[in-house]
Amino acid sequence: MEKVHKEYSDLAELLKVLAHPVRLCIVRGLIMKGECNVSYMQSCLDAPQSTVSQHLQKLKSAGIIEGRREGLEIYYQVCNEKAFDIVNILFNNSNINEVD
């Protein structure tokens, strides 16, 4: 029973992290684009760099995204298959356009 409880807790935590409009937008954008850097996300979201970075840190801490350094930039991509599937299901029949 404890193993089942842990699986439900892990999934609930994943949903909690995704349940913010900015983080949902970031993950969807990364799924659609493949990967991108903070500067690109900042211009798409029209949000301060510090705000975007805070959301990226939460996504990274939850194991939803990972970063790849290229010079001074870090390029992020989705690395969590469950998060990838959840976001795709949410937007499957959506009229919401791509961010950029």
Sum this structure up briefly.
Keywords: DNA-binding, Transcription, Transcription regulation. This protein is α+β, with helices and mostly antiparallel strands and 100 residues long.
Would you mind describing this structure in some detail?
This is Winged helix-turn-helix transcriptional regulator. Residues 1-98 form the HTH arsR-type domain. GO terms for molecular function: DNA binding; DNA-binding transcription factor activity. Keywords: DNA-binding, Transcription, Transcription regulation. By secondary structure, this protein is of the alpha+beta class. The chain has one domain (2-91): Winged helix-like DNA-binding domain superfamily/Winged helix DNA-binding domain (Arc Repressor Mutant, subunit A, Orthogonal Bundle), CATH 1.10.10. 62% of the residues lie in helices and 14% in strands. It contains five helices and three strands, in the order H-H-E-H-H-E-E-H. The chain has helices spanning 2-18, 21-33, 38-45, 49-61, 81-91, and strands spanning 36-37, 65-70, 73-78. It has a three-stranded antiparallel sheet. The longest helix is centred in the N-terminal third of the chain and has 17 residues, at 2-18. The model has no long low-confidence stretch (mean pLDDT 91).
